[in-house]
């Protein structure tokens, strides 16, 4: 999708702050999903620093492999993430949030398990025109026991109901499903807030769960 970022200048990095050495508690969130669903755009839109990215120019070697089916907004895609994207958000003087955007192509999926290590939670970003591209991400997160939410990025595709999306992705009823525009900083922030609220809900439920004592 178009990488134009609302509310800030991608070229000049207006409003971005410098890294400081005061934080001593880093919280990690991973953004995963299929090829071209907007992971780099989301990290770029919400990070307070100029994001680190590992985008490389797409070449003829990727023809027939990194395909988007000629979907609108993706046919002109000329670069792709080959390792990960990295962004940062300061929560307070001692706590920072680190964002890692995982590469979407199948040939880079071997990197995901390492990215998931130490992760607080994850956002599965989906394009409703290509929901099947998100199955692997959900499967790996469930395999690792990593809490996650699903965010539908707005590409102007068919208007599926939340129930239809849940059924297509076989989502557990407890997994939140939210809408977003990854180009918008506020919308991307809302996605992260939804994830944090989900993590809090899971934590409270765990605390209130009956304790099993060894006999």
TrEMBL record:
Segments crossing the lipid bilayer: none
UniProt key word Calcium: no
Signal sequence bounds: none
Keywords, in A-Z order: GTP-binding, Hydrolase, Nucleotide-binding
InterPro entries for the chain: Gliding_Motility_GTPase, Gpn, P-loop_NTPase
CDD domains referenced in this protein's UniProt entry, alphabetically: Ras_like_GTPase
Family: Belongs to the GPN-loop GTPase family.
The name this protein goes by in its record: ATP/GTP-binding protein
Natural source organism: Streptomyces huasconensis
Source lineage: Bacteria, Bacillati, Actinomycetota, Actinomycetes, Kitasatosporales
């Amino acid at each position: 999708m178009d990488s134009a970022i609302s509310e800030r200048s991608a070229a000049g990095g207006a409003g971005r702050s410098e890294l400081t050495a005061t934080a001593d508690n880093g919280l990690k969130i991973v953004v995963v999903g299929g090829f071209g669903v907007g992971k780099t755009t989301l990290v770029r839109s919400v990070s307070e620093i100029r994001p680190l990215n590992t985008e490389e120019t797409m070449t003829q070697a990727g023809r027939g492999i990194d395909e988007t089916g000629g979907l609108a907004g993706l046919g002109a895609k000329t670069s792709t993430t080959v390792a990960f994207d990295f962004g940062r958000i300061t929560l307070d003087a001692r706590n920072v949030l680190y964002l890692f955007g995982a590469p979407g192509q199948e040939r880079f999926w071997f990197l995901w398990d390492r990215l998931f290590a130490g992760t607080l939670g994850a956002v599965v970003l989906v394009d409703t025109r290509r929901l099947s591209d998100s199955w692997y991400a959900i499967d790996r997160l469930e395999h690792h026991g990593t809490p996650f939410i699903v965010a539908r990025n707005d590409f102007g595709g068919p208007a599926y109901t939340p129930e239809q999306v849940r059924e297509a992705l076989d989502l557990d009823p407890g997994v939140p499903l939210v809408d977003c525009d990854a180009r918008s900083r506020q919308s991307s922030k809302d996605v992260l807030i939804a994830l944090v609220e989900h993590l809090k809900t899971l934590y409270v439920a765990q605390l209130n769960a009956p304790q099993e004592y060894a006999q």
